[in-house]
Amino acid sequence: MKRVFLIVLDSVGIGAMPDAAMYGDEGTNTLKSAAKSSYFSMPNMEKLGLFHIDGIDWKQTDAAYSGRIARLTEASKGKDTTIGHWEISGIVSQRPLPVYPDGFPAEVLDAFSKAVGRGVLCNRPYSGTEVIADYGAEHMRTGDLIVYTSADSVFQIAAHEDVVPVEELYRYCEIAREILQGEHGVGRVIARPFVGEEGAFVRTSRRHDYSLKPPRTTMLDQLAQAGYAVIGVGKIRDIFAGKSVTEYTYTSSNEDGIAKTLAYMEKEFEGLCFVNLVDYDSAYGHRRDVDGYAKALTYFDSMLPQMLSKLGEEDILMITADHGCDPGYEKTTDHTREYVPFVMTGQKVEAANLGTRSSFTDIAATVLDYFDVVPVFEGSSMLAE
């Protein structure tokens, strides 16, 4: 019974890519910034080889390692969750998804407002916590929806659960998703429900993402077509708009995501368990919280022995990331254009340093190779090299 557990540590980049200056991200290094915290400790990832990956010359280690490791280059144009996960699954995006630093055009907002029967507040790039603090009271008085974006390709709708029931907010997001196609095809429409009273509004865990459908065949499609399970943990189902995800569960935190991954390790299935742990990005990276980021990485590392103990003879564990979000970078709170780590282990995986790879698609090619499925996209398997 072959199983692959592919865990994406959302935003855990390992150093600026050569074109980082084009994105305003020169000198960034998410992992290095987190490692400066006194709370940072990753001895188990060190044993797998994390600190032997190309470019990680800031952490001295003489420890022998047991994993198969590489530094992965993002071949796509972009640095967001959707583009990164699509590339991990086999799709290289030649154009970045649209962003709206000045807010959405009237043609988009007018169509949306007319379709949902409510007005719109804000329409600017904004912090998710600050936008409800600044506009939450007006939203509660008027019933108008808080629509905002960020440096990412997102159309976010915030609404108080007492004003707009969550299911109604989800319906509004589905309407927005239908409008936002083609030229204005943002990567994600995001429902951002919140609760509380003026001066103490807080977002809830009932966020929901509505992504564009992947434009081409992915490893998820090929695995599902071949009869294998494709299990999504966290926001994986949302990132791929549900396409070829045969089973899924949402998560409320990294801790919850790790617990649910451990639970799937106890189950019998043949195929892929694809996991996203988002707190590194959403709770710590964007908030430029170095200590919080370090604590979250340390927690993951502390849980790694449990994961390894549950791997069967034919199981493979892969650990990677989708972009950077350097908590120590002061120029922006945006994602950062970085290389990402790749660490693979299992009873049948031989230790090796595969250097720097040219695309995240090598992950998809490796997964399909393990299940004897020939990929329909470019990518080189890292199993046998």
CATH architecture of the largest domain: 3-Layer(aba) Sandwich
Q: Runs with pLDDT <50, length 5+?
A: none
CATH topology of the largest domain: Alkaline Phosphatase, subunit A
Number of domain units: 2
Order of helices and strands: EHHEHHEHEEHEEEHEHEHEHHEEEH
Share of helical residues:
25-40%
The shape is: globular
CATH class value of the largest domain: Alpha Beta
- Supply Rg: 20 Å
Broad structural category: alpha/beta
Extended strand count:
14
Overall mean confidence score, pLDDT: 96
Separation of the first and last Cα atoms:
23 Å
Number of helices: 12
Q: Please give the order of strands in the largest beta sheet.
A: 10-9-11-1-12-13-2-14
Q: State which percent range the strand residues make up.
A: 15-25%
CATH homologous superfamily assignment of the largest domain: Alkaline Phosphatase, subunit A
* Major sheet size, sense and barrel closure: 8 strands, mixed
What does this entry show, briefly?
This protein is an alpha/beta fold and 385 residues long. Helix content is 31%, strand content 20%. It folds into two domains: 3-97 and 212-370, Alkaline Phosphatase, subunit A; 120-210, 2-Layer Sandwich (Alpha-Beta Plaits).
Write the layout of secondary structure elements.
Elements: E1 3-9, H1 30-35, H2 43-48, E2 68-72, H3 81-88, H4 106-116, E3 120-125, H5 128-142, E4 145-149, E5 154-160, H6 166-179, E6 188-195, E7 202-203, E8 208-211, H7 219-225, E9 229-233, H8 236-239, E10 247-249, H9 254-265, E11 271-277, H10 279-285, H11 290-309, E12 315-320, E13 340-345, E14 352-357, H12 361-370
Parallel strand pairs: 1-11, 1-12, 2-14, 3-4, 5-6, 9-10, 9-11
Antiparallel strand pairs: 2-13, 4-5, 6-7, 6-8, 12-13
